[in-house]
């Protein structure tokens, strides 16, 4: 695509996986972009993250796929989840079947989160990266531009603000006003840890945790495990939810993340079988996360010249492992509309309207799916879901997430709607 320098400037609030990816591709395309990150450097929790076919298509479209794949340090493969009983001998309930019609829809991989950011950081111009910049508000300046205010008292003006500041987004306030109306605690907590796989193998575990991702389902709790780093490290997330299924309550007090005593985790999973407990006993210092979600989902991700991407727009439950993928789809869509040859300062609102017509319905469908998935994983046993029910609910659950070609969708939409951009650009 031939790119031309633009007559508008962009400020990105937040340099997580989505904000950094967005900053790199806009900077590469010649757009004047600055990214403002609250932390002292780009950083992520030391845990894994999985990318499905739709995430990889977006990364390819952004020109970041090769860099990320190299950092993952393993060949792309798609190892599907085995759903097993958390209790007893961990009976196999459902071996997920991917009905992919193309090879591309059968590709995915996992990566250590810090490795993702380490690989991408050198691609961003350091002169356009500001750390220790916690944004406290986004307002309209007298100049008509967007005014960012930071906790250190400094300010910055840009024509367009991209809010990539995660689930507790400050930028989102421009769109929803009082954010307590849409941000809720899911009554679910997650304990996270990483354990060397060799150590577990030595314990004679029967569940093949080193070769496949597993979801160990139960009543009011479930475990997710998947191997990373060429099958040397097991990523573990252990969820405990309210017995009534998803019930949103007001935002949990800070901190949302803390270190928890191991005994608390072991007590929570009492009743789970031997292999599950072996895995959990090896997480010596679990981190404990309060899981929040945006609900009801935002109808729009845009207000004036402020636009949201990633968790700021659609922070969802982690049960489909699809949050970043939706963020990458946002970033790809925004990148294409902003770098379209006809997009200029005068028609930014039109470009953003195209973005806003594409993204909320798709991302929110995945968000709703993440809630349904959690209810099934935490609903196995007694009077809730039988093994047969679980199979029925889970069959094809990832089809709408994975079998989606963001590159083709955006290309088609831009072809249909570029006249709107051109007419305003020349008027
Ligand atoms: C347990 C768990 C497992 C998950 N597993 C997966 C998975 O396998 N696959 C998947 O696709 N997704 C997964 N997700 C979801 C995924 O982690 C998120 O969707 C993703 O991290 C969102 O990225 P982001 O860049 O939008 O936001 P964030 O990662 O939250 O980044 C926001 C950035 O903005 C900065 N910031 C915040 N506020 C401000 C401010 N006011 N001013 C300046 N900077 C600010 C923060 O410091 C941070 O760097 C999981 C989530 C959880 C909790």
Automatic annotation (TrEMBL):
This is FAD-binding domain-containing protein. It comes from Cyclocybe aegerita. The lineage of its organism: Eukaryota, Fungi, Dikarya, Basidiomycota, Agaricomycotina. Residues 8-368 form the FAD-binding domain. Keywords: FAD, Flavoprotein, Oxidoreductase. GO terms for molecular function: FAD binding; oxidoreductase activity. One of its GO terms (biological process) is secondary metabolite biosynthetic process. Gene3D superfamilies: FAD/NAD(P)-binding domain. Pfam families: FAD_binding_3.
């Amino acid at each position: 695509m031939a790119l031309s320098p633009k007559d508008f400037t962009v400020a990105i609030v937040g340099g997580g996986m989505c904000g950094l990816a967005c900053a790199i591709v806009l900077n590469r395309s010649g757009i004047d972009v600055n990214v403002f990150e609250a932390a002292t450097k780009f950083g992520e929790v030391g845990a894994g993250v999985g990318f499905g076919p739709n995430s990889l298509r977006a990364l390819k479209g952004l020109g970041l796929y090769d860099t990320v794949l190299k950092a993952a340090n393993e060949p792309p493969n798609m190892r599907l989840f085995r759903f097993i009983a958390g209790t007893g001998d961990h009976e196999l309930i459902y071996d997920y079947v991917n009905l992919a019609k193309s090879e591309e829809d059968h590709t995915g991989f996992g990566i250590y989160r810090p490795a993702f950011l380490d690989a991408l950081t050198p691609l961003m111009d350091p002169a356009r990266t500001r750390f220790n910049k916690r944004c406290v508000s986004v307002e309209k300046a007298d100049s008509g531009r967007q005014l960012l205010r930071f906790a250190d008292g400094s300010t910055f003006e840009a024509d367009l603000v991209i809010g990539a500041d995660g689930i507790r987004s400050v930028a989102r306030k421009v769109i929803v006003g009082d954010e307590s109306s849409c941000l809720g605690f899911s009554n679910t907590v997650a304990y996270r840890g990483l354990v060397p796989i060799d150590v577990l193998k030595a314990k004679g575990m029967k569940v093949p945790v080193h070769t496949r991702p597993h979801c160990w389902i139960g009543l009011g709790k479930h475990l997710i495990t998947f191997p990373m780093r060429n099958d040397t490290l097991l990523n573990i997330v252990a969820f405990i939810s309210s017995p009534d299924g998803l019930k949103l309550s007001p935002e949990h007090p800070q901190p949302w993340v803390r270190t928890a005593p191991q005994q608390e985790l072991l007590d929570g999973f009492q009743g789970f079988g031997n292999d599950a407990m072996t895995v959990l006993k090896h997480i010596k210092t679990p981190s404990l996360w309060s899981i929040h979600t945006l609900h009801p989902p935002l109808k729009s991700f845009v207000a004036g010249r402020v636009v949201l991407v990633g968790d700021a727009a659609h922070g969802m439950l982690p049960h489909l492992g699809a949050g970043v993928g939706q963020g990458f789809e946002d970033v790809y869509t925004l990148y294409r509309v902003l770098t379209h040859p006809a997009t200029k300062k005068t028609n930014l609102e039109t470009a953003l309207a195209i973005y806003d017509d594409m993204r909320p319905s798709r991302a929110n469908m995945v968000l709703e799916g993440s809630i349904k998935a959690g209810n099934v994983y935490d609903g196995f046993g007694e009077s809730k879901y039988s093994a047969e029910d679980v199979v029925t609910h889970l069959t094809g659950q990832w089809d709408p997430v994975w079998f989606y070609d963001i590159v083709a969708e955006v290309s088609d939409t831009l072809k249909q709607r570029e006249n709107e951009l051109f007419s305003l650009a020349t008027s």
